[in-house]
Inverse folding.
């Protein structure tokens, strides 16, 4: 009897050990490209094909060159400006629309909401053509306005905000009305502060999305000066002479590091946002 | 904020209040005022949304019936000529095929792998958060950066993967430069990059399964294997449909990785081995300057994505009853 019990326990231990082994193998596969990127970015030119994870000689020359002489600081600035403006707009209008959908009854409300949800079925690959035609007409190519044009309000933002706003009790709004708060005041001073958890998910998700966006900024810009970080990064190797892998890897590290740090801080909201994007289905 | 005048008759109505705003001065009933405000709030975001998405969609439809070249100012209506043209173009057929093959390989691999990772994660006690974070890292990393790193690792002769193949005595392949392997090489990268996202979707689905079910099954003496097949799998069905559809749509729409990694400067090489519909739309519109043709391809692409989305609606609209 005791024998069976210990063998069962040993078996259990073996299985849970196997789980960690499997997850660790997966973890190494996930982590390795990052280590390889960092390692290569620190190697001196010509030693990129020495396949050791530790550089023989650590050098920050690629980083200093990219940051001091290249266009990279400008691309950083462009990206930060665009991500900030877009995120402010998305946060405000998504919250306002979400609040209105959740807290008012008016003719056409549900149809409007369904229309907004339906927009996610239209692939961006189709919309870029008319978007490009219209920003070309407006002379917005190579401008922040052009890059920002399609993304000032998002389905995801409205959806998340509506979900959250619906949970705010109506009595609270009525109490505000009795105190003479204006309808906009009810949104701005009561609902918006209460919706901060949902708002932070929308803000963080949007900032992340704009930072990493590639297709539209690629089309909306031609001049290097107006590139976003990702568009600039995509041209890094061809802008240089020959295959400068150290420089390219340093660029990739510089472009992804801010968001990796961002992720460490806002992991909770990002995880929440992912499960919300699942909810939408 | 406002001091309501005591004489206002609206003040006597239950559940209502008094304003001194413009609308009140116009003697608009209070319930109407609220509706007006609702339209004021929703108008700008909604109109913007409709123009940017649906307006643009209609524009794309209409371009697809025109001989619309960027450098040419006249845009004559040519009916279905663009559509006839693309279906006669072997490159389009190849792109259509590649797009579907890409999705057909990627979706099952991603779903099975991420579900396995989620099941493993949900069954361990320590380091759960750490592993979850590790698998999720690529989600916050840009496709461009990921593509560069893998492109470097895929280098024939010098790349780390070649060394790896040599070590295990596997015959060398040229990865992205070999028409036979290039598409698969890109699929591998997109799988690596998206496992974490779908793992989270599955973890959320697993959390929704009531613990009581497992407890009851254990009381009845069900072994882990039975618990998995009789409880976890049936109740994870909905999550699997969701993950499959999300992954299918994102596979069809893959642009960045192909643009960054395909061999002939990002246009779907070598020998059109990796050309996909998004890449072809991009090339026709912005390099061949043929907007009409690009729009026609995008309409076909849209119809494919739409079919998948509608299928999802149908599959997920069935009520679940726990």
């Amino acid at each position: 009897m005791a024998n069976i019990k210990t063998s069962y326990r040993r078996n259990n231990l073996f299985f849970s050990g196997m789980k960690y082994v499997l997850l660790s193998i997966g973890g190494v596969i996930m982590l390795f490209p990052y280590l390889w990127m960092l390692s290569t970015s620190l190697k001196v030119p010509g030693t990129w094909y020495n396949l050791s994870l530790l550089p023989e000689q650590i050098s920050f020359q690629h980083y200093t060159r990219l940051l001091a002489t290249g266009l990279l600081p400008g691309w950083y600035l462009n990206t930060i400006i665009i991500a900030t403006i877009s995120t402010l707009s998305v946060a405000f209008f998504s919250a306002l629309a979400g609040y209105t959908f959740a807290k008012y009854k008016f003719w056409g409300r549900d149809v409007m909401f369904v229309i907004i949800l339906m927009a996610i079925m239209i692939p961006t690959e189709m919309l870029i053509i008319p978007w490009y035609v219209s920003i070309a007409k407006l002379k917005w190519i190579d401008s922040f306005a052009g890059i920002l044009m399609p993304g000032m309000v998002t389905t995801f933002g409205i959806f998340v905000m509506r979900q959250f706003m619906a949970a705010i009790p109506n009595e609270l709004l009525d109490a505000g009305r009795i105190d003479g708060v204006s309808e906009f005041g009810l949104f701005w001073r009561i609902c918006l502060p209460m919706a901060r958890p949902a708002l932070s998910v929308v803000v963080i998700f949007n900032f992340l999305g704009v930072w990493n966006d590639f297709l539209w900024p690629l089309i909306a810009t031609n001049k290097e000066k107006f590139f976003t970080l990702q568009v600039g990064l995509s041209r890094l190797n061809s802008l240089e002479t020959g295959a400068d892998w150290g420089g390219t890897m340093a660029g990739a590290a510089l472009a992804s590091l801010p968001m990796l740090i961002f992720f460490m801080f806002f992991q909770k909201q990002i995880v929440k946002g992912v499960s919300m994007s699942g909810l939408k289905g | 904020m406002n001091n309501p005048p005591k004489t206002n008759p609206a003040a006597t109505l239950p559940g209502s209040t008094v304003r001194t705003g413009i609308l009140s001065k116009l003697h608009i009933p209070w319930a109407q005022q609220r509706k007006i405000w609702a339209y004021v709030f929703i108008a700008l975001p909604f109109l913007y949304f409709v123009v940017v998405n649906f307006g643009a969609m209609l524009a794309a439809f209409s371009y697809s019936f025109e001989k619309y070249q960027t450098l040419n100012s006249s845009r004559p209506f040519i009916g279905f000529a663009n559509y006839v043209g693309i279906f006669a173009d072997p490159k389009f057929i190849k792109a259509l095929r590649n797009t579907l093959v890409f999705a057909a390989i990627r979706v099952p691999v991603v779903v099975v792998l991420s579900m396995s990772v989620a099941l493993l994660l949900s069954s361990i006690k320590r380091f759960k958060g750490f592993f979850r974070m590790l698998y999720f890292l690529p989600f916050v990393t840009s496709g461009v950066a990921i593509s560069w790193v893998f492109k470097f690792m895929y280098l024939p002769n010098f790349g780390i993967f070649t060394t790896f193949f040599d070590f295990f005595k596997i015959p060398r392949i040229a990865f992205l430069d070999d028409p036979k392997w290039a598409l698969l090489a890109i699929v591998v990268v997109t799988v690596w990059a998206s496992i974490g996202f779908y793992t989270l979707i599955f973890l959320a689905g697993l959390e929704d399964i009531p613990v009581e079910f497992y407890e009851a099954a254990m009381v009845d003496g069900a072994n882990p294997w039975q618990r998995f097949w009789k409880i976890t799998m049936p109740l994870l069905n909905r999550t699997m449909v969701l993950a499959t559809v999300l992954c299918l749509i994102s596979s069809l729409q893959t642009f960045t990785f192909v643009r960054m990694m395909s061999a002939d400067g990002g246009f779907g090489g070598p020998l059109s081995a990796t050309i996909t519909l998004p890449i072809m739309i991009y090339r026709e519109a912005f390099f061949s300057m043929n907007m009409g043709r690009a729009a026609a391809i995008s309409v076909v692409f849209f119809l494919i994505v739409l079919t998948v989305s509608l299928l999802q609606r149908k599959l997920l609209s069935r009520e679940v009853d726990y």
User: Anything to note?
Assistant: Chain A has two domains: 1-59, 65-279.
